Design the sequence.
């Protein structure tokens, strides 16, 4: 049931004021949309503000969940003017409740910025806060489970997977032939261990092309080398690296028969968009904590991704490949109108 217990605390206030804190990264933010949507359902009449990183301000605004979206520049602790400005903004808003979905040391520090008070109700990991969520840190609990438990403590039990329907775009501009499959061969260059070899993706691209499915390559500037290797192995692949927006990825995933990729934000988006997904994870990526979930997700885990064979990935891909002819017609409509 929606919460009616949070009473307005400001004079003449007609609605409670809620703050949701979620900074990032992309995959974490995408998974937090489900809890954010649950918070909105629970507080239908509240004025809800999101505090997030500049990179996710537009995403927060386009979600339609928030009355205001604030950008957090995350001032260093030695930046006293920056910290004081943040404190003034937080305390001046007179929030009735804060949902800290980031639950980091930084955002726990924000709770202390309300000293000496009054302090809002606080859902987070700060001992002594009104809705304390205790768990052993660091944790291998999956983000979905952890945030669901956190919200249960405040009485929010209807927490569904993130609904990405608002993330949409017109992908007809890419003029892609149906059917397509998404290949997402990148991840942070700082964690190269998360990357399945580009040569292996090249073999997969060739096999997809041979079956009449166009491989579509998704990535950014730091994935250029990997994508060049894949294109060299499969010239028929379509390279959309650097051309897609964040909102194109769900649209492409809805049109695709399959997505194959590494531990990276766009893979989580593809899985949550309902695309049959083969997610490739090193054990050092902590798949128990961060892997995509769902009936449409097949997870392949190896300690060293160099040891994951093309044959294993290909057989897994065939097992989850979307085959529904009606789905093919729908995909063609999405791609061509």
Sequence:
């Amino acid at each position: 049931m929606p919460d009616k217990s949070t009473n307005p605390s400001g004079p003449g206030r007609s609605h409670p004021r809620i703050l949701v804190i979620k900074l990032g990264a992309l995959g974490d933010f995408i998974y937090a949309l489900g809890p954010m949507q649950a918070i909105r359902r629970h507080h239908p009449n509240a004025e809800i503000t999101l505090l997030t990183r500049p990179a996710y301000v537009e995403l927060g605004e386009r979600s339609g969940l928030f009355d205001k979206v604030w950008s957090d520049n995350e001032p260093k602790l030695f930046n006293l003017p920056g910290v004081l400005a943040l404190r003034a903004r937080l305390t001046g808003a007179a929030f009735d409740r804060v949902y800290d979905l980031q639950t980091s040391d930084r955002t726990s520090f924000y709770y202390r910025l309300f000293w000496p008070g009054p302090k809002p109700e606080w859902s987070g990991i700060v001992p002594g806060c009104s809705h304390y969520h205790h768990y052993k840190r660091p944790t291998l609990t999956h983000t979905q489970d952890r945030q669901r438990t956190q919200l249960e403590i405040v009485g929010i039990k209807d927490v569904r997977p993130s609904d990405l329907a608002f993330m949409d775009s017109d992908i007809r501009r890419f003029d892609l032939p149906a059917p397509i499959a998404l290949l997402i061969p990148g991840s942070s260059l700082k964690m190269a261990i998360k990357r399945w070899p580009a040569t292996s993706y090249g073999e997969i691209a060739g096999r997809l092309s041979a079956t009449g499915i166009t491989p579509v390559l998704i990535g950014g500037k730091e994935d250029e080398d990997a994508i060049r290797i894949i294109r060299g192995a499969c010239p028929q692949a379509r390279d959309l690296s650097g051309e897609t927006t964040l909102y194109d990825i769900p649209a492409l995933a809805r049109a695709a028969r399959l997505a194959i990729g590494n531990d990276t934000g766009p893979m989580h988006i593809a899985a949550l968009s309902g695309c049959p997904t083969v997610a490739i994870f090193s054990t050092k990526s902590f798949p128990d904590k961060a892997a995509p979930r769902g009936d449409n997700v097949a997870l392949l885990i190896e300690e060293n991704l160099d040891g994951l064979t093309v044959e294993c990935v290909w057989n897994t891909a065939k097992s989850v490949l979307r085959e529904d002819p009606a789905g093919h017609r729908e995909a063609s409509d999405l791609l061509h109108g």
Q: What stands out?
A: Residues 91 and 116 are 11 Å apart (CA to CA). The longest strand covers residues 47-52.
